[in-house]
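Email to the structure team, subject: Gas vesicle protein model.

Hi all, the expression group asked for a predicted structure before they design truncation constructs. Nothing fancy, just the tokens so they can compare against earlier work. One-line instruction: predict Gas vesicle protein, return tokens.
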Amino acid sequence: MSTGKAVLGTVAGLAIGGILGILFAPEKGSVTRRQIADKGNDCVNDLKSKYEGFANTLKEKIQATKQEAKDIAEIGLDKFDKVQGEFNDEAKNF
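Reply from the structure team: attached below.
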């Protein structure tokens, strides 16, 4: 079983257990529904936060990779210009 499936199963089990615990608690239905809604909102907010963190990390890595590619291209162009200049100098002396 993959780690992702194990984590998903654990989270689902915890959610189901929490909901069943709330449903069987000796409280009014309106209070129970509010608690379920609050737990759902907490889960949604947690997922949004994790998604935003993942998206920001990915964005930073993409920007770093772009910059690294630009740096490599600049080094390559500098070397090309140097070799081209040397070639032109040798061609003039030939």
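The chain has two helices and no strands. Residues 3-93 form one domain. Ping us if the truncation boundaries need rechecking.
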